[in-house]
């Protein structure tokens, strides 16, 4: 499928916003600056996004590799399914930019509750839901106890991943290794 001029302009604006957000932060980046960086008129930005927060959300979804096509993974084995979910990585191409933007995103989310809620809904909720679905399938198949507390289980599984994310500079554990080990430890404890 050929890319239309509108798609090319859209991508150019996303890339410009990504560069400026990583360089200046969210609060210090204006729509005027993004338009200048992308080489478009400011109204063009507003033809694509209602406001800066909508553009910020698209940029964050983009650098985290989140698309509208979220697929469920069902191998038939709950530990394998959990491993697949926990070891999902965003695109490596954006690792540096993502790490530069994340502290600002956390701060912005704390001071802008609507944006924070949208961030949790779009980024965090799909992973939480995928884990819940994998656990429910494990219960239905008799791999897990019917009395398993899904919410506590999600906390147990996501806790190590969040710890690694927060302390990534100090935790030398690879995300694939940690995800696999967390899923296997959960399996040993609850299967």
Automatic annotation (TrEMBL):
Residue ranges occupied by any HTH tetR-type domain in the UniProt entry: 7-67
Source organism, top-level taxon: Bacteria
One Pfam match: TetR_N
Keyword match Protein biosynthesis: no
Database matches in SUPFAM superfamilies: Homeodomain-like, Tetracyclin repressor-like, C-terminal domain
Keywords from the UniProt entry: DNA-binding, Transcription, Transcription regulation
Transcription as UniProt keyword: yes
Residue ranges flagged as DNA-binding region: 30-49
Molecular function in Gene Ontology: DNA-binding transcription factor activity; transcription cis-regulatory region binding
Name the record gives this protein: TetR/AcrR family transcriptional regulator
Species annotation: Occallatibacter riparius
């Amino acid at each position: 499928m050929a890319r239309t001029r509108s798609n090319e302009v859209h991508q150019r604006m996303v890339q410009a916003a990504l560069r400026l957000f990583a360089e200046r932060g969210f609060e210090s980046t204006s729509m005027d600056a993004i338009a200048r960086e992308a080489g478009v008129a400011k109204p063009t930005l507003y033809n694509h996004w209602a406001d800066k927060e909508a553009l910020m959300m698209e940029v964050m979804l983009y650098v985290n590799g989140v698309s509208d096509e979220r697929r469920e993974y069902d191998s038939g084995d709950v530990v394998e399914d959990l491993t697949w979910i926990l070891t999902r990585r965003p695109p490596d191409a954006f690792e540096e930019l993502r790490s530069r933007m994340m502290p600002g995103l956390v701060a912005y989310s704390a001071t802008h509750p609507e944006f924070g809620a949208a961030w949790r809904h779009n980024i965090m909720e799909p992973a939480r839901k995928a884990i819940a679905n994998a656990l429910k399938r494990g219960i239905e198949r008799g791999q897990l106890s019917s009395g398993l507390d899904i919410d506590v289980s999600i906390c147990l599984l996501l806790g190590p991943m969040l710890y690694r994310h927060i302390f990534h500079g100090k935790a030398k554990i690879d995300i694939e290794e940690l995800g696999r080990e967390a899923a296997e430890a959960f399996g040993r404890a609850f299967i």
